[in-house]
UniProtKB/TrEMBL annotation:
GO biological process, one term: pentose-phosphate shunt, oxidative branch
Protein name listed in UniProt: Glucose-6-phosphate 1-dehydrogenase
HAMAP family from the UniProt entry: G6PD
InterPro entries: G6P_DH, G6P_DH_AS, G6P_DH_C, G6P_DH_NAD-bd, NAD(P)-bd_dom_sf
Residues of the Glucose-6-phosphate dehydrogenase NAD-binding domain: 29-202
Natural source organism: Mytilus edulis
Catalytic reaction annotation: D-glucose 6-phosphate + NADP(+) = 6-phospho-D-glucono-1,5-lactone + NADPH + H(+)
Pathway of action: Carbohydrate degradation; pentose phosphate pathway; D-ribulose 5-phosphate from D-glucose 6-phosphate (oxidative stage): step 1/3
Family of this protein: Belongs to the glucose-6-phosphate dehydrogenase family.
MF term (GO), any: glucose-6-phosphate dehydrogenase activity
Enzyme kind, highest EC tier: oxidoreductase
Residue stretches making up the Glucose-6-phosphate dehydrogenase C-terminal domain: 204-374, 378-427
Keywords on record: Carbohydrate metabolism, Glucose metabolism, NADP, Oxidoreductase
Residue spans crossing the bilayer: none
Amino acid sequence: MAVQGKVDMLSILRDELAYEGGAASHVFVVLGASGDLAKKKIYPTLWWLFRDGLLPPKTYFIGYSRSKLTVDDIKKKTLPFMKVKNGEEQKVEQFFKINEYIAGSYDSPGDFSKLNKAIEQKGSCNRLFYLALPPTVYESVTLNLKATCMSKSDKWTRVIVEKPFGKDLESSNRLSNHLSALFKEEELYRIDHYLGKEMVQNLMVLRFANRIFSPVWNRDGIASVVISFKEPFGTQGRGGYFDDFGIIRDVMQNHLMQILTLVAMEKPPTTNAEDIRNEKVKVLKSIQPVDIKDTVLGQYVGKPGGKGDEAQGYLDDPTVPKGSVTPTFATAVLSVKMRDGMVYLLYLDVEKATLNERKAEVRIQFKDVAGDIFPDGRSDELYEAWRIFTPLLNKIETEKPKPITYVYGSRRPKESDEFMADRDFKYTGTYRWTESKETKAGL
Ligand SMILES: NC(=O)C1=CN([C@@H]2O[C@H](COP(=O)(O)OP(=O)(O)OC[C@H]3O[C@@H](n4cnc5c(N)ncnc54)[C@H](OP(=O)(O)O)[C@@H]3O)[C@@H](O)[C@H]2O)C=CC1
Ligand SMILES: O=C1O[C@H](COP(=O)(O)O)[C@@H](O)[C@H](O)[C@H]1O
């Protein structure tokens, strides 16, 4: 799980570059430059930093992956995600001028030497390597980086690895050992970009800095919590990574667990990263492994008659192996038993290609209050409002009375004024149909 405080690329670059005073050269290498993360998040973020003048003057970008591409190909892929405004076209050109692309494999020392030569051409520089890659290649890539691409002399190297950190407990431990044998802790960043999201960061403030929620956020107040993630699009060519991992590893084990810990943890003594981490770990230790009987798994199929992406089921994505049973949907129920006896029931719900809206949501179900005056749980307002109108609506349905007519966009029909006048209706301050009536009502 990511270290709190080292959350997104923006903060990494700000932290790392600040103490250089902008004097040194920097080379940012995107490994997996041909992929989805690179085009949707990494290149756009680099562009925004460049556009807003947040990078040191001598900064260069190198994309690296196996696909035979050019900088122009990268530009075409990522432009739709860069949110370029009118008048910024020239700046975009300048941005791509400081980009390079190198095709190479993830296990060839020769290809990493090529990459190193390209970096060396920028002179003595600090180096950041962002692994926008499936975790299956982290070991070979980092071995090659260590052997061939580290900064020389007084310059530093940073290696940034993405979630999921491993594929299961064993491979995660192995990866930890592998990375710590190669790099110092200060050279390593483990990223979970959900920690950088404003709403996620606000969860602690919501819980621990106000009087509304703190008193009810306990075993007496909360019945259950539902944490959901829904996306309106499918894998869109990410089968090379996704099919090996599936939705539980992709989103549930990391993004949703980070949210879960922030929802369920006790108040930390301070907002210091270690204190928060310790509280989160206590929550995680209180959760039993998820049982298959408490889980529902699914995989999306194309929508009959749907257009474009909608028509494409998971198995129709050409990057997904035929007959794959990898889940793209999962719901799981967990229970967290805290030391004070507090029990949360947690529903985790992750879905790709489901709604036509995108959402990540935490829903808290509070317990019923004692002495509930609405014992049958019926929404009484709704019930009464329908009770009042249903006989009328039924009558209209059966008798079909002829409606009076009125002209589109005109004032209300004259007949209705007469109808109201017949009843000696007292107009009140809210009546707004005609100027004369408004005046009469004293508005
Ligand atoms: N996409 C997203 O929105 C986000 C993704 N991430 C993380 O980023 C990482 C990469 O994800 P993403 O970019 O979506 O995945 P992609 O499937 O797009 O993979 C990235 C690149 O890796 C190479 N690749 C793909 N599959 C394999 C494979 N089996 N073996 C070797 N190389 C492969 C491909 O490049 P080539 O063939 O050219 O070498 C591909 O372009 C993952 O760890 C993911 O969890 C994190 C946050 C968001
Ligand atoms: O890590 C990932 O996150 C994205 C969703 O993140 P968002 O910030 O774009 O909402 C998800 O699409 C992807 O599958 C997963 O790898």
